[in-house]
Amino acid sequence: MPQGQPTVVPDDGLTTRQRRNRPLVMVHTGIGKGKSTAAFGMALRAWNQGWPVGVFQFVKSAKWKVGEENALKALGETGKGGTVVWNKMGEGWSWIQRDPKDGEPSHEEKARQGWEQVKRDLAAETYRFYVLDEFAYLLHWGWVDTAEVVEVLRDRPGQQHVVITGRNAPQELVDFADLVTDMSKVKHPMDAGQKGQRGIEW
Amino acid sequence: MPQGQPTVVPDDGLTTRQRRNRPLVMVHTGIGKGKSTAAFGMALRAWNQGWPVGVFQFVKSAKWKVGEENALKALGETGKGGTVVWNKMGEGWSWIQRDPKDGEPSHEEKARQGWEQVKRDLAAETYRFYVLDEFAYLLHWGWVDTAEVVEVLRDRPGQQHVVITGRNAPQELVDFADLVTDMSKVKHPMDAGQKGQRGIEW
User: Fold this and answer.
1) Fewer CB atoms inside 10 A, N or C side of chain B?
2) Is A60 left (phi over 0), alpha (psi -120 to 50) or beta?
């Protein structure tokens, strides 16, 4: 039950209203469950505000997150809230640059092209709420340069909120982000020999 | 990116299929953000499976979680997935026992009556996925007896998944639960003087 009261009043020259409406960069990291799930849960709030929501799913798996995908798409189609665009690397980014000489781009190259699209959308203010799902892995692996990401996020125009999920978020990103939550695993059914099940893991 | 492979095969006499479909009790605790949000994100998966979803919101605030509430209700109304029933203590439980002599029941009494309704629904298998939002507080405060909750959950019939959120989940509940995630705060905008904002906190 958040109290809604800041513990510090910063000396940043902003009014409370300006500060309240400041666009946020949020990071969900750690080895526990709930990083992506909480990000998609936040997207429900954005949808309820009527904001355009853009999801960029930086994973290959087709099965995981299909529940969230179907739900958020269905919400977008109700017309009662914001629009939802779901970009899934597993099905190939629709905007991807294919080079017929070299065949299918590598996972790394697809991921990088996904980031390039995010940059274009941020510049164009395409969405008001972004979920960059599993994006922290790309930074951790060095596929996308963290310093560049921080620079792009810092300079993004308008009122665009961005949530980044994934284990091993680089310290440079954590330092820059406005809100960081570490999801710690206390106990997981897989530790007790239980496999993932529908409705729970996807 | 979960690998989907258990690390242990238990000697419990169950087949993998039986074990896979075992109903789960999940707890999201800790002082960080994302406990409830991740629970509502999970509800998207349950909805996508066509399961009846029951939310019990054990808080008084009307503003918080209105985004998730509107979104999940809208999903339930699409007819494309499961049904959604949202029970909110802030607006009074609809089933509450009123005693005209004593006036409005106390917060504690309302909370306890909410738990009584959860017990009835579990016994009747009303839902397949339950969100008991902020319920851990009630246990921590002693308003509801943790030993009783564990007993009811242990003996619940059928295939009913239950997610309990809130800080300070009692150890007895953590010990019993199948999945426990601790959301740790690394950084929060309120620490930097930022108040909650629409689309983010509600």
Assistant:
1) N
2) alpha
A73 interfacial to chain B (CB closer than 8 Å): no
> Can you list the domains of chain B with their CATH numbers?
22-94+101-184 (3.40.50.300)
Residue A53: what are its φ and ψ, rounded to 5°?
A: -110, 130
What confidence tens digit (pLDDT) does each residue in B140-160 have? 999 999 999 999 999 999 999
Burial of A60 (0-12, 13-18, 19+ CB in 10 A): middle
CA distance A12 to B192: 10
Q: Do A200 and B37 touch (CB under 8 A)?
A: no
Structure tokens at B110: 């309302």
Phi, psi of A36 (to 5 degrees): -75, -40
Rounded to whole angstroms, how far apart are CA atoms A6 and A18? 14
Asked if residues B24 and B100 have their Cβ atoms less than 8 Å apart, the reply is no
Give the containing element (helix H, strand E) for B48: helix B35-48
Closest CA to B145 of B107, B115, B110: B115
Report pTM.
0.82
The sheet that has A129-133: what strands, in order across it?
A84-88, A53-57, A129-133, A161-165, A25-29, A179-187, B179-187, B25-29, B161-165, B129-133, B53-57, B84-88
- Determine the Cα–Cα distance for residues A163 and B18; give it in Å rounded to an integer: 36
The complex's ipTM? Answer: 0.77
Phi, psi at B83, each rounded to 5°: -85, 160
Alpha carbons within 13 angstroms on the beta-carbon side of residue B83 total: 6
- The sign one gets for the Cα dihedral B171, A168, A6, A81 is negative
Asked if B81 and A61 come within 8 Å (Cβ–Cβ), the reply is no
Query: Which residue among A4, A198, A201 sits closest to B196, beta carbon to beta carbon?
Result: A4
